[in-house]
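Re: your question from the hallway

Yes, I did run it. Sequences:
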Amino acid sequence: MSGSVLILGGDGFCGWPTALHLSAQGYDVAIVDNLSRRSIDDQLGASSLTPIASIDERLAAWRSVTGKEIPFWGIDIAADYSGFRNVVSQRRPDAIVHFAEQRSAPYSMKGVNEKNYTIDNNVRTTHHTLLAMVELGLDAHLVHLGTTGVYGYSTVDMVIAEGYLDVIIPLEEGRSIRDTILYPTQPGSIYHLTKSLDQLLFQFYAQNDRLRITDLHQGIVWGTQTAETRRHPALVNRFDYDGDYGTVLNRFLVEAAIGYPLTVHGTGGQTRGFINIQDTVRCVALALENPPAAGEKPRIFNQVAETKRVRDLAEMIAGMTGAQIAFVDNPRKEAVENELALSNQSFLDLGLAPILLEEQLFTETIEIVGAYKDRIDRELIPAQSLWTTGHRPGLVKHL
Ligand code: NAD
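Structure:
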């Protein structure tokens, strides 16, 4: 592959392995990241289960194993528009991949400061990216990481199409019109709300400025390593397991490894989309190879391999490890039970053969959890953020 790609948020869980994968594929890759994810870890007293190297060490390790250089800019895209625009102007990339947002739903619901920060940070990084492209007359393809969470979690059993809904609007005298609209969003947290707002920004800039945009509605990512992050210890990817940033599956695996009960929120009747980190990087590469044309509305792909009910996931891991399951009060405000079926036809058509949970669960993730078991801090595991002030303190049981 050839061409230059600017990765926003390229030090993060999804951004780092994607930067390496694209570099390995032959793209000329550069990263912008203000390292805020590392600062939030410090603020929360949490850290990745895997010992992640500094960004300088990471980039030096990549240089040592491949001879490839990945330039890095430590810029806050939300706060420093002119600094960011200067990088875009200097690189004039063929594509921009945008991961640079505060991505934890529980963190976004912690309190006034976190709500404000998540809205300001996420909406501004997206808007500054679009603004810089327009101001610099840059005909780049923007690939953004969105979330399947924007669809909401209804109890209706139907397959959710990719981003859009065909509607028939009845008019008077038996007439009607057909239209295709953005799938009505139903965000369940401030974080998800920012992803819903991103969609409107994309719609506007694609229509007004003919920007070429692909929005990847990604499910919950599990796993840690990719072919590229395995190439040197300093390239290891992050693995979050704390109550704010640890995604459900990684949290269950850590719990199983240390003999802690698998903490299922509520009845565990929530159904969610999942994807392995190795498929995340493949999907981004596939999206880059298949850009939309100028003037097209934003292209939306559902980036999921499969959907699973949380309770079934817990039972699967309990069956494999002998762990106990503990049903704890749900800190979130969400449907107790929901159905979810998502079309992922676009990526299947582009040749993705996704990794499924049953196939890879142990070989990949357990290896990591076992290797770094001594670094696990049990205190970090329970969810600490509550969705509404109506919740009584202490409702989340600390096991
Ligand atoms: P992450 O927090 O590990 O990475 C995000 C990176 O962006 C961090 O390195 C952070 O320092 C950087 N960043 C944030 N704000 C910035 C700013 N203002 N300027 C510069 N850099 C900034 O998150 P992740 O898990 O890698 O997620 C990446 C993207 O994928 C997010 O947008 C997220 O919403 C989306 N996503 C992730 C998951 C998942 O399960 N991890 C699921 C669906 C969607």
